[in-house]
Design a protein that fits this description.
Two copies of one chain form a homodimer. Chain A has 204 residues and is an alpha/beta fold. The longest helix of chain A is centred in the middle third of the chain and has 17 residues, at 66-82. The first copy, chain A, has helices at 16-20, 35-48, 66-82, 109-125, 138-142, 148-156, 173-178, and strands spanning 25-29, 53-57, 88-92, 131-135, 163-167, 181-189. The two termini of chain A are 29 Å apart. A six-stranded parallel sheet of chain A has the order 3-2-4-5-1-6. Chain A has seven helices and six strands. Chain A is globular, with a radius of gyration of 17 Å. In chain A, helix 3 (66-82) links the parallel strand 2 and strand 3. Chain A has one domain (21-96, 107-194): Rossmann fold (3-Layer(aba) Sandwich), CATH 3.40.50. In chain A, helix 2 (35-48) runs parallel beside helix 3 (66-82). Strand 6 (181-189) of chain A pairs antiparallel with strand 6 (181-189) of chain B, so a sheet runs across the interface. Chains A, B: Pfam families: CobA_CobO_BtuR. Chains A, B: One of its GO terms (biological process) is cobalamin biosynthetic process. Chains A, B: This is Cob(I)alamin adenosyltransferase. Chains A, B: InterPro entries: CblAdoTrfase_CobA, P-loop_NTPase.
Chain lengths: 204, 204
């Protein structure tokens, strides 16, 4: 458990207070599951702080996140009804993005991914949320659908104190470079190695 | 993302259906944060299935999980009021265990940890919960407070379909051996390396 004692003090011209209060950019990468799961675990803490949460899923199928989505939608509704916790928005590329209001239109995946990033970039500029989950965002970057340098620049320049968690295998080096926190999930053992299939409530 | 295709079929006398429906024992270990966070992320999926969740925190201070606890208590209350999701129990060793009703009594940590395990063992035998989080449970095992072989035997023999997630650094080899799923969280980069202190909403 971290003891709150930094090993070194950086020469970045910021006071400890300023460093303490800047937004964190976290990257969860590696071959093993747990990347998104841990991001949604972090979002629980953000919710409890009353922060505005924006989730953006860069995957075609949302099958693997239905449990998290249902729980966060419930927490978001709880916030609207009682004021407890923070508001939650959940957007899925696979359903044409909730904010885009053009679900079902024929558009290729690369264009949809770019639309998603353009929206996130706008939200970062206007400080719409306090905590962003860009789920499986490493893939459109890896596939060249979205320009990594543009993403890095927008993340670097984001104003205020906006926290961003990006998940997915093979995070690009430039993204790892700009991140504050990078965790790699490594497989030690997986039930599928022993012939077990995925199951409801555990995998999704 | 797993495609649901096992690489091998084990010679354990179980049908695919039986294997699919047995409880999973997961261990989240490694030096990096994300172990407990991912466990609570999994618990979101369990909640959404309507499963009974039991969380047991084997830590003295609960400071680092207040966000998760508040969110899960809210989800548990939501279940009680509306029937959505599943029931949630949250027990902390540092406060004398909620079920023990002897908070504040002078008892050493090893004895408290053993009391906690004895209760979990009873609950496993009577199938009280569907999903258990034994948070930071590797430590009392490592420190010799609780017998690893006894734990392994109880986990092996647990009836029905009870899922168990155990977190903490340096999980004992015997526990890794019996686990179905083992994830190691590896540090690539951490903000404290760059002189940043922990902050509210991110670390706790």
């Amino acid at each position: 458990m971290p003891q709150g004692k930094p090993d070194t003090v950086p020469d970045d011209g910021l006071s400890t207070r300023q460093r303490r209060n800047r937004g964190v950019l976290a990257v969860h990468t590696g071959e093993m599951k747990g990347k998104s799961t841990a991001a949604f675990g972090m979002a629980l803490r953000a919710w409890n702080q009353g922060w505005s949460i924006g989730v953006f899923q860069f995957v075609k199928s949302a099958k693997w996140r239905v449990g998290e989505e249902a729980a966060f939608r419930a927490l978001g509704e709880l916030h609207e009804r009682t004021g407890q916790g923070g508001p939650v928005e959940w957007h899925k590329m696979g359903e044409g993005w909730s904010w885009a209001r053009k679900a079902g239109t024929e558009q290729d995946h690369a264009a949809r991914a770019r639309d998603g990033w353009a929206e996130i970039s706008r939200r970062l500029a206007e400080q719409r949320h306090d905590f962003y989950v860009l789920d499986e965002f490493s893939y459109p970057l890896r596939w060249g659908w979205i320009d990594v340098d543009e993403v890095v620049a927008a993340l670097r320049q984001r104003p205020g104190r906006q926290h961003v968690v990006i998940t997915g295998r093979d995070a690009p080096a430039a993204l790892v470079e700009v991140a504050d926190l990078v965790v790699e999930m490594t497989k030690v053992k997986h039930p599928m190695d022993a012939g077990q299939k995925g199951q409801r409530g555990i995998e999704w």
